[in-house]
Amino acid sequence: MSEVDEKRGMSPGRRSFLRLAGAATLAAAGVPAGRARGAEDTPLDALMGDGERGEFGQNFDQASRTIHMPKATAPTLSPETAEITQQAIQTYDGIVARGGWPKVPHVDELHLGTRNPGVVDLRSRLSASGDLDPNAVGNDIYDSYVEAAVRRFQARHGLTVDGLLRPTTLAAMNVPATTRRDQLKVNIGRLKTLSTNLGPRYVVVNIPAARVEAIENDVAVQRHTAVVGKPDRPSPDINSKIVQINFNPFWTVPVSIIRKDLIPLMQDKPDYLTQNHIRIYDPKHKEVEPAQINWYSEEAVRYTFREDPGDTNSLGRIRINFPSQYGVYMHDTPLKNLFGGDFRYDSSGCCRVQNVRELVVWLLDGTQGWGPDHIDEAIKSGDQINVSLTKPVPLHWVYVTAWSASDGIVQFREDIYGKDGLGGPTIPATTKL
Question: What is the overall mean pLDDT for the chain?
Answer without folding.
Answer: 84
